[in-house]
Amino acid sequence: MRVLRQRDWSKPVKPVAREVRSALPGDDRYPPLLFVGRPAEFFAEHWLDRCAERGWSAYTVTPRAGRLVGVREHCHDVVQVAASLPRQAVLVGHGPGARWAAAALTRYPARAAVLIDPPARLPDEDVVGPAQVLLVGAAGRALTKAGEHYKVTPTLLSDPRRLTDPSWLYPLEGLLDWLEQTIKPR
Amino acid sequence: MANAPRRWHSVPVDDRGNAVCVIGAGSSGLAAVKNLLEHGFAVDCYDRETGIGGAWNIRHDRSPVYSSTHLISSKPMTQFPDFPLPDHWPDYPHHSQLLAYFERYADHFGLREHIWFGTEVVSADPIENDRWRVRVRPSHGGGAERELSYAAVVVANGHNSHPRTPALPGIEDFRGKVIHSSSYKDAAVLRGKKVLVIGGGNTGCDIAVEAAQQAAGCWHSTRRGYWYAPKYVFGRPADQVNDATQWLPLRLRQWAFHRVLRLTVGDLTRFGLRKPDHKVYETHPIVNSQLVYYVGHGAITPVTDVKRFNARTVEFEDGTEAEPDLVVLATGYAPRFEFLDPGILGANPPRLWLHMFAPRHPTLAVAGLVQPDSGQFPLVHWQTQAIARWLTLRTTNPERAAQIWAGAADRAEWRWTKAKVSATERHWFEVSHVTYLKAVESLLKELTA
Ligand SMILES: Cc1cc2nc3c(=O)[nH]c(=O)nc-3n(C[C@H](O)[C@H](O)[C@H](O)COP(=O)(O)OP(=O)(O)OC[C@H]3O[C@@H](n4cnc5c(N)ncnc54)[C@H](O)[C@@H]3O)c2cc1C
Q1: What is the pLDDT of residues B25-36, one digit of tens each?
Q2: Which of B284, B317, B95 is nearest to B201 (CA)?
Q3: Interface pTM (ipTM) of the complex?
Q4: Which of B11, B115, B154, B170 has its Cβ near the most Cβ atoms within 10 Å?
Q5: How far apart are CA B28 and CA B403, in angstroms?
Q6: From the alpha carbon of B62, which atom of ligand 1 is closest?
Q7: Residues lining ligand 1, judged by CB closer than 6 Å?
Q8: CB B55 within 8 A of CB B160
Q9: Pocket-testing residue among B157, B287, B331, B431, ligand 1, by greatest number of atoms within 8 A of Cβ
């Protein structure tokens, strides 16, 4: 919890335009999912539609890239998009996206969060809001540390490298199952 | 949660168990509802208006905003810290954008289903076990009164709905029209008139500028000289530049800000404006880039305090006279808590710990009764986080809560400004955002430790 945010007040992150892609089901019983990672196309092509089929509205954004861009800018971009969604969002981050989502959790009260392959270095600020966090990844030091940080037991994936294999929807189905158990539909 | 209705006087009292009652659905009330829900509380929020947004909803009868109102604090200093204003909005959004922002906040966090619109809180009284009996009734007549009991009450009724009108000698003899700025909605009423604007606050300055653009003439009467901070310095929102120097000692910051104003705005006395009798940061900042410009173009004539009104003319302390057709009293607003017994918040003005807690009533809290040298919503966000955590701690760890509370009574007298704030009536709840937020942060840490 950081109450005094002198840096954000006196030197706010520069505004940029962002591309947000989405797949929306007919009704929205569930809060929206926001996938963050790079490239956004990965989520856009393989996961968004499947989420919509299962009744979840799903969005994805890739934060800005470039020189002099750090986790502060990435976090800003994720929070801007999350706050623009109609309802309190669930953040799903993968790889570098897990780091950005973790940072965003210290600024935006997400409904829940899923961090796939969380980074070894997590933010030194607390999560704001009530988010329950699901950690998914390969057994290892990073995942254990993340489990201690968020005080949850991580879920092990047998082969997380296959995440980039487009046909492999297995982790997505698992995380949607978890979300459906964790979040009451409206 | 509602048990079988209990009888209280003649009206059945609906026992709302552990629920918290929030009075008002303006920016402060919405933050209270959101943060209480986030901490697991059931919440009933009442607003006598039919929509959210309070002051920022220009359709509300009591809204103090006028069609040209924009924020005077820039976006990063103003937004709720966990729900940023959109990147594609300007540095100083329009009041209609602020309302849209609160609408989105309410939808995003699912707040509306907890708000009872068109419902006025008539009274809130302490009953046994630190609980509260709250009487509500439909605000537009018809329908019965109801009584409910709550575990706690959060007062978020705003402090901009009751116009403050000073005693002005002879005003009853004056034949021209007199309005309070609360009923000023747009410049149409100024057109072709000779206008006297009384009051040097942000609203008074805004209306003087509109009169300069639209009216046949404009006098601007202020009690004292002010520092008119521009909205931009060095091409950046002035409050952001100012915050970049918060780590410097106050004296140095005051010196530096005086220098900047001297270099950018210039010597105000050259324009016939009075020299401020105080240093910057000692009163609520006046942010207006246009006032000095119009004074310099002769479209605004600065005058001193009113000495007396005559049938057609107004005399000022400095001996000058004006002959206005229309007088706009931009003399501010006074906080009022009609639904509370006068003793509950302490003396008048209320003496509250951190401008929030009444020392004798641990389950009563006020949100939004602060006037910061920055945007108000971040402060209210952290206030309502603290209120939610305080109420939580009272049930999870009563001993620890009692310890913290024991210190509260002594601290009710404290002020949370760095500079010595001018002691006029309207300045008692003025705070420096840095000093105040530091104090709230340490309370939050105490409550979660
Ligand atoms: C012209 C103007 C410009 C401003 N500019 C800025 C700015 O740039 N930046 C900034 O941060 N602040 C600014 N402010 C300060 C402003 O007060 C706050 O921004 C904010 O709107 C206050 O919100 P609130 O919720 O505390 O009160 P309000 O918005 O007044 O809301 C109070 C609500 O309580 C309801 N209510 C009251 N009594 C009862 C009752 N008995 N029963 C039921 N409902 C009740 C009312 O209907 C209302 O909806 C400005 C104020 C004015 C007047």
Answers
A1: 999 999 999 999
A2: B284
A3: 0.95
A4: B154
A5: 28
A6: 47
A7: B 23-29, 46-49, 54-56, 64-65, 69, 71-73, 78, 120-121, 156-158, 160-161, 203, 339, 368, 375-377
A8: yes
A9: B157
Burial class of residue B442, CB neighbours in 10 A (0-12, 13-18, 19+): exposed
pTM over 0.90: yes
Whole-angstrom Cα distance, residue A89 to residue A82? 6
- Residue B411's contacts (CB-CB under 8 Å, 6 or more residues apart) are B353, B354
Chain A residue numbers touching B35 (CB-CB < 8 A): none
Following CA atoms B329, B335, B336, B342 in sequence, which dihedral angle do they give, to the nearest 10 degrees? -130
Residues contacting B375, CB < 8 A, separation 6+: B71, B73, B74, B77, B78, B79
What are the distances in angstroms from CA B102 to CA A169, B27, B34, B91, B438?
38, 7, 12, 17, 26
SS3 of chain A: helix, strand, coil, percent, to 5: 35, 15, 45
Question: Are B139 and B121 spatial neighbours (Cβ–Cβ below 8 Å)?
Answer: no
Taking Cα atoms as reference points, which of B80, B156, B64 lies closest to residue B377?
Answer: B80
pLDDT, tens only, B280-335? 777 777 889 899 999 999 999 999 999 999 999 999 999 999 999 999 999 999 99
* Bridge partners of residue A92, in order along the sequence: A35, A114
* Amino acid sitting at position A122: L
Task: Name the residue with the closest Cα to ligand 1, atom 23.
Answer: B27
